[in-house]
Write a structure and sequence with these properties.
By secondary structure, the protein is mainly alpha-helical. It contains two helices and two strands. The protein has one domain.
Length: about 80
């Protein structure tokens, strides 16, 4: 059975033929992946903190456009229902 990749190919599960357990290396790998994830999330949150106004404006625009789309869709459905009666 080939190795299975998890977490975008970072963590490999051992195949059936590999019956040796290496708890120290597995723990070290887990801690290094956890540290890397923490650094990535830190950069993401720092980006959001630095560009909070721009991110908020983009969320507001997307919310407005979504509301507009469903309002138009609802108005058309009501109009067709009134025409049908």
């Amino acid at each position: 059975m080939p190795n299975v990749f998890l977490f975008f190919g970072c963590l490999m599960l051992p195949s059936d033929s590999d019956n040796m357990n290496h708890p120290m290396s597995e723990t070290a790998s887990f801690l290094s992946y956890l540290t890397s994830l923490g650094l990535i999330l830190n950069e993401f949150w720092q980006f959001l903190n630095t560009n909070a106004a721009g991110v908020a404006a983009m969320i507001a625009i997307m919310t407005y456009l979504t509301n507009l789309y469903f309002s138009v869709k609802n108005s058309r459905a009501i109009g067709q229902r009134l025409k049908g009666d």
